[in-house]
Design brief:
The chain is α/β, with parallel strands linked by helices. The protein is built from 16 helices and 15 strands. It has three domains: 258 residues, 3-Layer(aba) Sandwich (Rossmann fold); 85 residues, Four Helix Bundle (Hemerythrin (Met), subunit A); 52 residues, no CATH class. The protein is elongated, with a radius of gyration of 26 Å. The two termini are 41 Å apart. The relative contact order is 0.12.
Length: 460
């Protein structure tokens, strides 16, 4: 098995993946807060960590992937109140749509998808442990974590205490008065007027804070010291910093061995976010472009870097998908690939082993495609199918000429015949004009051994 190196946010270095349990890897990635349908930015961590699971399994490891769902949160209360709906009903409906939308990617489901609302008991026990150990305190039904009690606080985000806040904006004076220290964050929030769900706890009715749920869910399913904790880079502080602190304080150990963060998808120069309205919903993009194009778009950038989003980026991804489909049409389906092309295949997997570098892996894949095209027919597609499967593209079909253009677009079929007549008469100006007309209608002409054929262009 290759040595697998991953960038660890805490150390800032590439670190070898050494499973806590030999041969088995546990991954926990933070999932969405379900107050509306997810956008393409929410899909990036789902894709990154689902594909990482595929790669690690390809390398012979057993992998358990956990992606949670936050279904108790201020944003859900606010959205439900604005719609005149029950918050639990809204969260349940949005959770179902999240699963439906991510099913459309064709990557399968995570091995576990815990809900915050179904983990209340372990969360309460976790908070009680922190209180008993002097790391948390209750006041007026709330419970807060004593940030300064954790000497490692700031280690993950590389921030100094004096430069931190808990993302509360401009907290009111009443909140500051309840806290011992402005840096402390909520583990449990007392029930407030207008909130339609609550659970009983030793400190009074209320609900969990955001950060504690992930510490409890991750430990419940993977234990302490599991291998990889993932999520978007916007979660490094305060969410993941607080998770790490809670676990150190409660268990005297680190929550995860490697902290792995994906960059944001950027729309008009800033990260995509529901709060600023610059979003592109995943289900709409899947409907207009298809899952293969979406996956190609996401793997085209290194997971740690920001990824620009635009229709042109999607069209480019669609064209790359069609290049592969076109290559598959020329290859011997189900046949072994030439042994002397194996180094190109190996370079693909070596790139993934070095910090899951999908752009470098794609470059090797397309090197393989170019070499196969150069050799002509008879090259088996075995290596290419193996690479595509790890990228979630294993079911990609070969590009074929449309079988019934005359039935679906008779004018296009007539134009193709006119174009061939013009070419035979060496009227290349007319032939070129007809080609442009066909392109405008959504058809590309490709010449094959049996003559010219019309191929549908990728979606807009």
């Amino acid at each position: 098995m290759r040595e697998i190196l991953l960038h660890d946010t805490q150390s800032g270095e590439l670190r070898p993946l050494v499973p806590r349990d030999p041969g088995r890897v546990g991954i926990y990635a933070c999932g969405p807060t379900v107050y509306s349908r997810i956008h393409i930015g929410n899909a990036r961590p789902f894709v990154v960590f689902s594909l990482l699971r595929r790669f690690l399994r390809h390398e012979g490891l057993e992998v358990s992937l956990v992606i949670n769902v936050t279904d108790v949160n201020d944003k859900i209360y606010d959205a439900a109140r604005a719609q005149g709906r029950d918050s639990a009903e809204l969260a349940e409906r949005m959770t179902a749509l999240y699963r439906e939308d991510t099913d459309g990617l064709g990557l399968g489901r995570p091995d576990h998808e815990p809900l915050a609302s179904e983990t209340i008991g372990p969360i309460i026990d976790y908070i009680q442990t922190l209180i008993d150990r002097g790391h948390a305190y209750a006041v007026e039904g709330d419970v807060y974590f004593r940030v300064r009690s954790d000497t490692g606080y700031g280690r993950l985000s590389h921030r100094r205490l004096e430069n931190m806040d808990q993302g509360e904006g401009d907290p009111d004076s009443a909140l500051l008065e309840r806290k011992e220290d402005r840096l402390d964050f909520a583990l449990w929030k007392a029930h407030k007027e207008g909130e339609d769900t609550s659970w009983e706890a030793p400190w009074g009715a209320g609900r969990p804070g955001w950060h504690i749920e992930c510490s409890a869910m991750a430990e419940q399913l993977l234990g302490v010291g599991f291998d990889i904790h993932g999520g978007g880079s916007d979660l490094i502080f305060p969410h993941h910093e607080n998770e790490a602190a809670q676990t150190r304080a409660a268990r005297g150990a680190e929550l995860a061995g490697i902290w792995m963060h994906n960059g944001m998808i950027q729309f008009t120069g800033e990260k995509m976010a529901k709060s600023v309205g610059n979003i592109a919903l995943l289900h709409e993009i899947l409907e207009s472009h298809g899952p293969e194009t979406v996956l190609m778009y996401i793997v085209s950038g290194h997971y740690r870097q920001p990824l620009a989003f635009s229709e042109e980026e999607l069209r480019d991804a669609g064209r790359r998908v069609d290049r592969i489909r076109d290559a598959l049409a020329r290859l011997a389906a189900g046949g072994p690939s030439p042994e002397d092309m194996r180094p190109l295949r190996d370079a693909f997997f070596d790139a993934l082993a070095r910090d899951f570098n999908t752009p470098a892996a794609l470059a090797s894949l397309f090197d393989w495609v170019r070499e196969a095209n150069r050799r002509g027919s008879g090259v088996g597609d075995g290596d290419l199918r193996e690479m595509l499967d790890v990228l979630g593209l294993g079911s990609l079909a070969a590009l074929e000429a449309h079988g019934d253009v005359g039935g679906t677009d008779p004018e296009a079929a007539a134009l193709l015949r006119q174009r061939e007549t013009a070419r035979a008469a060496r009227d290349f100006q007319t032939a070129d004009r007809i080609r442009e007309e066909l392109l405008a209608r959504g058809w590309e002409i490709r010449d094959g051994p049996d003559g010219p054929g019309l191929f549908p262009l990728p979606g807009p």
